Amino acid sequence: MDSKTDGLARRALPTGRQAQIVLLIALCAAGVLAFGWGASRLRAAQPAAVAAATMTDRGLHLTAAQLASLTINTVAPVKFRSEQAADDISVGACLG
Fold first, then answer.
1. pLDDT at residue 6 above 80?
2. DSSP for the chain?
3. Is 7 a member of any domain?
């Protein structure tokens, strides 16, 4: 060995210790993944009655007061404002 690699070899951890560190990191990663998977499964699980109600009941249900307050308006043409007019207003407000 030359002088550069000799120092690295002396500072290196034993192979068994390196294997322990890698195994510990792998176990921690597996634990985090298992915890996340379990949490997502708990969140996704819904009671059967709630799931059935949301699947069949997708309509709009208004109260009698809401139905009475509904009105129909006719459509009327409106003049379109361009971006230039809006830009002029904002620049004038900043300078004013």
1. no
2. --HHHHHHHHHSPPHHHHHHHHHHHHHHHHHHHHHHHHHHHHHH---HHHHHHHHH--S----HHHHHT---------PPPPHHHHHHHHHHHHH-
3. yes
Is the residue at 59 inside a domain?
yes
% of the chain beyond a pLDDT of 70: 60
Of the CA atoms within 13 Å of residue 93, those in its CB half-sphere come to: 6
What pLDDT is recorded for position 65? 93
Burial class (CB in 10 A: 0-12, 13-18, 19+), 54: exposed
Q: Per the structure, how many domains does the chain have?
A: 1
- Can you tell me the distance from the alpha carbon of 39 to that of 19, in angstroms, rounded to the nearest whole number? 30
Domain hosting residue 24, numbered range: 3-70
